[in-house]
Write a structure and sequence with these properties.
alpha/beta; 6-stranded parallel β-sheet; cell division; 10 strands; Rossmann fold; 40% helix; binds guanosine-5'-triphosphate; nucleotide-binding; 60s Ribosomal Protein L30, Chain: A; cytoplasm
Length: 490
């Protein structure tokens, strides 16, 4: 399928650049150049190779509260563990999502002008790519999401990196708010769990490139499948509508991926060709193919997912098999699909193949859509709530100290978060989604799909979006029918 990409912040810029490079390296073109990157600091633009300069949009550079680049002192600590003073010196919005949203709101005319560079009639869907714990990623990203949802009829997805456990509570809090904002508004959210993918022996910042490579491989296998010119006819060829139909259920999605080498020797290919032409008996080799594909699909199921989750909590599944057509028999295909039905307990399993005649390997990419049992997101949510409580306690102390009559004053925020400290994050209720078989995925921005049961900003007031999520983090409406948590699954 064709996808336009909108990188936001440093993570978004790097990831979009990586996706563009992967397009060139693999010859799979799925963006047709429909890309943009927005940032409040220019440094990450300098790291790009494939992202054209005219597609790099710097915003907020004239905003008085946005820091300009300051040469860091040699002994300055990592940004994520930095003190307020260090943060003051970080370029851009320096981790502040309210400021990010304010800047994006102020610069909506500039953002809209840049959006004219992207032809939404040429693509099947749009995808915002960001670090959800970033001030720019969350703040600017949420305003951009609201803007795209209000002007596009195509689905808008979010691909977002989640902060690792050793990043600051502030980043976790911002990411939890971003999820809370994005899930009801976006047509689907595909989080990438930095914690799961980073090795503890190395600083996370040194592993971004490797993680981004992993993300690019999976996103290309998923979204670029079917975009290359068909060298061979395949009745099982993946259809972009299948990807959109799988994602149309909304919520959080996760991707698994596995590869095996195939026998590309002349004899192996000849034997398979004869079978396909009906000139040789199917039995032993076809059986081997089926067993191989089953093993491959099982490996993809058991692989480290972009967002680790319980796959039995998924709502819809899609599997794409890419490789030499001679190595993917219909029997193998059906065996893989049956395995997925069994392992996930859902009958909504779509499947398609991407014939790659010269490939020496077969790849299985599995998309789990609307997964609801995600302990990582629960943990992030709890951490965010604890952080918010701490912030509110500090505010209360200040309020008490400054109160003229000596009475204890509790801030509105604290009152809002006083009751239910461990409320879970809410997910999409499958039945409330696009059960009409809508393959356009064009219904997520409706009241029905808003699991939080609260109106999302879709106009110029979008600067309020992350702040709204903030006051709501503890899920005052968690008792809605849509609420599902890992606790309920355990
Ligand atoms: N996977 C991945 N994660 C990243 C990358 N860069 C940053 N992150 C993560 O994304 C989150 C936000 O970081 P940034 O992208 O630097 O932040 P930003 O959106 O530019 O906004 P600021 O906080 O204002 O700098 C953090 O949790 C980072 O660990 C990247 O290249 N790849």
């Amino acid at each position: 399928m064709k996808l336009s990409l909108f990188g936001v912040g440093d993570a978004g810029t790097r990831l979009v650049d990586k996706l563009l490079r992967a397009e060139v390296e693999t010859g799979r073109n799925f963006t047709d150049g429909n890309v943009l990157a927005f940032n409040t600091a220019a440094e990450a633009f300098g790291e790009t190779d494939a992202l054209p300069e005219e597609r790099q949009i710097l915003i907020g550079d004239t905003h008085s509260a946005v820091n300009q680049y300051v040469e860091p002192a040699d002994d300055s600590p990592d940004t994520d563990t930095a003190s307020a003073t260090d943060r003051d010196r970080s370029p851009g919005v320096a981790g502040d999502p309210e400021l990010g949203a304010e800047v994006a709101d102020d610069e909506l005319p500039e953002i809209r002008r840049a959006l004219d560079l992207v032809d939404d009639t040429e693509v099947d869907a749009a995808m915002i790519v960001a670090g959800l714990g970033g001030g720019t990623g969350c703040g600017v990203g949420s305003v951009l999401l609201a803007e795209l949802k209000s002007i596009y009829e195509i689905p808008v997805y979010v691909l977002g990196a989640l902060p690792a456990a050793d990043e600051s509570d502030e980043r976790a809090h911002t990411a939890a708010r971003a999820i809370r904002t994005c899930v009801p508004l976006a047509d689907a959210v595909l989080p990438v769990d930095n914690e799961a993918w980073a090795r503890s022996t190395q600083p996370l910042t040194e592993q971004y490139d490797e993680i981004n490579e992993m993300v690019a491989t999976r996103m290309l296998s998923l979204f670029a499948a079917g975009e290359s010119e068909p060298a061979t006819v395949s009745e099982m060829r993946i259809d972009p509508a299948d990807v959109m139909r799988t994602l149309a259920v909304g919520g959080l999605s996760s991707v698994g991926h596995a590869t095996i080498e195939v026998d590309t020797s002349d004899e192996g290919l000849f034997a398979r060709l004869m079978q396909l032409l009906g000139l040789a008996e199917e039995t032993p080799d076809t059986q081997t193919d089926a067993a191989t594909i089953k093993r491959l699909v099982r490996s993809a199921l058991n692989s480290k997912l972009t967002l680790p989750c319980d796959i039995e909590s998924t709502d819809r599944v899609l599997v794409i098999l890419s490789g030499p057509p001679s190595a993917i028999s219909r029997k193998g295909f059906e065996t893989g699909r049956y395995l997925l039905e069994e392992e996930t307990g859902t009958v909504e399993v779509l499947a398609g193949d991407e014939p790659l005649p010269n490939a020496g390997e077969i790849t299985a990419t599995v998309l789990f859509s609307n997964v609801t049992d995600v302990s990582r997101v629960d943990k992030l949510q709890k951490r965010a709530v604890a952080y918010q409580r701490g912030q509110n306690d500090e505010t209360a102390v200040v309020d008490t100290a400054t109160s003229t009559d000596g009475a204890t004053t509790i801030s509105a925020d604290e009152r809002a978060t006083d009751d239910d400290s461990d409320q879970p994050f809410e997910f999409h209720e499958p039945e409330a989604q696009h059960e009409n078989g809508d393959t356009s995925g064009d219904t997520a921005n409706t009241a029905d799909n808003n699991v939080a049961g609260e109106p999302m900003a879709t106009d110029d007031s979008a600067a309020e979006t992350p702040a709204d999520a903030d006051t709501d983090l503890e899920g005052d409406d968690a008792n809605t029918a849509a609420a599902t948590s890992s606790d309920e699954h355990e």
